[in-house]
Amino acid sequence: MGNFDLLMHGFSVAITPMHLMLMVAGVLMGLVVGVLPGLGAPNGVSLLIPLTFALDPTSAIILLTSMYWGALFGGSTTSILFNIPGEPSSVATTFDGYPMARNGQSTRALTLAFVSAGVGALMGILVITLLAGWASQFALRFGAPEYFAVYFLAFAAFIGMGSAAPMKTLVSLTTGLILTSVGMDSVTGSIRLTYGFSDLLGGISFLVVVIGLFGIGELLATVQEGLRFRGVSSKIDLRDVLKTLAELPKYWATTLRSGLIGIWMGITPGGPTAASFMSYGVARQASRQGAAFGSGRPEGIVAPETADHSAGTCAMLPMLALGVPSSATAAVMMGGLMIWGLTPGPMLFATKPDFVWGLIASMYVSNLLGVILVLATVPMFAALLRIPFTIIGPMIVAICFVGAYTVSGATFDLWLVLVFGLVGFLFTKLDYPLAPMILAMVLGHKAENAFHQSMLLSDGSLGIFFANPLVTGIMMVALALLILPKTLGLALSLRRNRKVVA
Amino acid sequence: MTIKTALIAGTALLAAAVPALAEWTPERPVEFIVASGAGGGTDNFARTIQAALTRNDILDQNMVVLNKGGGSGAEAFLYARQNAADPHKLIFGTNNVYLLPHVAQLAYSAEDLQPVAALALDEFLIWVKADAPWQTSMELIEAAKAEPGTIVFGGSQSKDTDETLVALIEQTTGADFKYVPFNGGGEVGVQLAGGHIAANVNNPNENIGQWQAGAIRPLCVFSPERMAESEPVSGDMGWHDIPTCAEQGLDIERYQMPRTVWLPAGTDPEVLAYYQDALTRVAETQEWQEYLAKTSQTAAVLTGDDLTAFIEENEAATVTVFEAEGWVTAAAQ
Predict the structure, then answer these.
(1) Which CATH topology does B125-254 take?
(2) Which of A314, A331, B266, B308 has the most beta carbons within 10 angstroms of its beta carbon?
(3) What is the ipTM for the molecules in this complex?
(4) Contact criterion met (CB < 8 Å) for B72 and A49
(5) Is the separation of the CB atoms in B115 and B201 below 8 Å?
(6) Nearest residue on chain A to B68, alpha-carbon basis
């Protein structure tokens, strides 16, 4: 088995004292970057690139990827503790992670998130190791219609079984779609919905909206309910961590399913954010206690975290093998690759085995290091919740605004945070779900572009979405996820009614 | 040594080091405003210059790279307008600086920026899938004439350099292609390798990986001369072995994209002179030569009047294509 020999060679490249040190440094820096909302992995990695000029490419990529893993781990921390997603891909973790922390089980929530993230990452790397050649060929089969089908599937999986009132879901979804169309449309080149404000030309940043909706919105709700921080935590000790570790095997089905979703979304460039939403949606559909999701279900944490990390690791594959980054961070790393003199593409695996397999081997080691380092900090992070609200509240406000400003260095974004803070507060108070709006903001523009491109290719015929087995298959699964839960529910309630009548 | 003598010594040193002209040097960290997202062609251009300036101690202030790629790069140029006369901001772009205002209504004009230098010319080639039936550009064009509107050209964006070139080919030859914009050259390269589109006009750097792997091949390059000699890239073919489009009978002698650096308008002439000098020195560094070779771009250091003349010619030629396609916005006319 050629790949195995290459991997062993990779380990000999990756495991040197210097590289181990870079991994620890990278993961720790990543944790900090991940915890701060706005200062996400893409910004962190691009800040580090100038420092890598002095390193050889293998060491440089090990440092950068370790930082990426650290940021992925760190991003879930604030999602769970403060309902502020540190990274776009950890938005879905807030849905059940924050309620669980609020129920006094913050240690359990954090441990669940970190360990399932680690498992997801390992699943992703395993796939990269075994299928490096084949998987990149698979990604080549994705044209515009296939992309649209994947995005459609993500929407369908998430919305098919929404628990909120359908009209309210629709309002939230449409708001998101309107927000995502602000700015320049890349297919027609026309400028939309900017009303002459040049600040809106680049569109409304999804991250800024999320910081407002979740961070400020949540604070407003807390203030209204009497200045008490709602995440009151119980006592924290290592036994909680161990107890949670013991309960993890129970969720093997969720883990496996989410890992596969993540791998798939990472290889077909859907990205980690889409993967975590899709995985959360599927987990909710698969669970018999679907209605309890959103109130602190462990599966609601395991699913998005596993998918997020398996997608994050798998995103390295299309970047290296095809030169297509499926996440913003991968795009930045690809820029680094070019500066170090490497050309991403199918030949990279043949011409630079040291680099490619050194990186793959380092992914095993640094993710393991990541889990250990982050678990060691769980008690520390969880203790944050015991700080009185009068101190932590203003700190969160500061973090939110600093985070929103770092996204693109625009003062206009600070106003957006305030506006969306109000929107988030009102939506929560009136029971409008926030998730559909976020999903529409993440995927709306991409789905629209893919749809538009497909229509250009087919001269306006919808038949293109059923033109080959691959795209037809994805569309069928999507339609099934969209329609089946509702019709099944209807059929079940009809039968129940008949029994009552009989 | 007293403070006074130290001051005198310092002044003497300064006087010795500085030529007669009152020279300007950056006093604060310099912002590199990149008119593309992270990882794009313009981003690599700016980061290579950052690396060359740092490693060769040409500029000893910190340099911060900021990506403002919104609105096809207009975000960066608007930022220049908002920061008029700020000598600590350099803007990195292509010919989009002066072409964008012609096709979109934007709150800036090319006069809001002062050109500093063009450092390279990126080449355009026609690429097709390796197993495509066409061997030369004219065969592809004849095929498009036989079945108008069916052969799909993919490109980076809408009304950008790619779509302009495809429109120019159509206007020159009377052929009719279908143009579909994607998001960036890398994505277009993969779409071609996967056979989802028939051809693209990518820059060498955007397609080299797929060419190395033998998934796609070039038909011709839009340059007056063949590209520089290089190591073989794919099989025994190197960049120099690719015929020019004019050689094949396609009557477009030159279509190249300059990589340009700008200042916000209104800075002092000393500032302009300082950056012109720094960038000219960058062009001599080893980092820069490696970058040109790796990305197969053509060296071209243009400053001052040469640059102004180049921009005028490039703008006039492109606007002619825009007008024929009906892309020019009401405000720009």
Answers:
(1) D-Maltodextrin-Binding Protein; domain 2 (3.40.190)
(2) A314
(3) 0.85
(4) no
(5) no
(6) A408
